[in-house]
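Query structure, 159 tokens:
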């Protein structure tokens, strides 16, 4: 499952506005003996998580969490081509005479490009902007996590 920075920050910071929902999602993964090794993110997201946590919980805790993320999660690099494709294919289509800006930012758009290249359709995120992309399903609470994990289990049984 792809992870957005807000999900990982919510897990790490008990005072974060999304902590409870992040714990709900993680609880569903733990019930199936799944952990951080199930998570995929970009190097952009890893940097964003460290940066934001450093301000919220301090350097030492941010560094410790960053180490866990980088050791246990799958991290894909964002290249210049990824950035160019994010702008042209994920952001530009939303800009028009009626709408001045896309529903997500560039870092999130790079997530979508990497997800496409690895055929990943689910993202743990509390950012509703992802809902504007029809090929993406957002995991944002216990119910959506349970549904995604049930679907995955059914798919794996059929193989």
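Result returned for the query:
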């Amino acid at each position: 499952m792809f992870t957005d920075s807000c999900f990982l920050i919510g897990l790490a910071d008990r005072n974060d506005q999304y902590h409870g929902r992040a714990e709900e999602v993680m609880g569903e993964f733990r019930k199936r003996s799944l952990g951080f090794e199930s998570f995929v993110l970009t190097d952009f997201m890893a940097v964003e998580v460290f940066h934001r946590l450093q301000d919220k919980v301090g350097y030492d805790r941010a560094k410790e969490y960053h180490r866990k993320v980088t050791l246990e999660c799958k991290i894909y690099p964002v290249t210049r081509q990824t950035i160019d494709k994010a702008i042209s294919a994920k952001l530009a289509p939303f800009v028009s005479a009626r709408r001045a800006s896309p529903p997500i930012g560039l870092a999130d758009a790079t997530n979508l490009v990497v997800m496409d290249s690895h055929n990943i359709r689910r993202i743990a995120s509390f950012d509703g902007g992802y809902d504007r992309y029809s090929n993406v399903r957002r995991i944002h609470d216990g119910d959506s996590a349970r549904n995604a994990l049930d679907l995955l289990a059914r798919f794996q049984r059929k193989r």
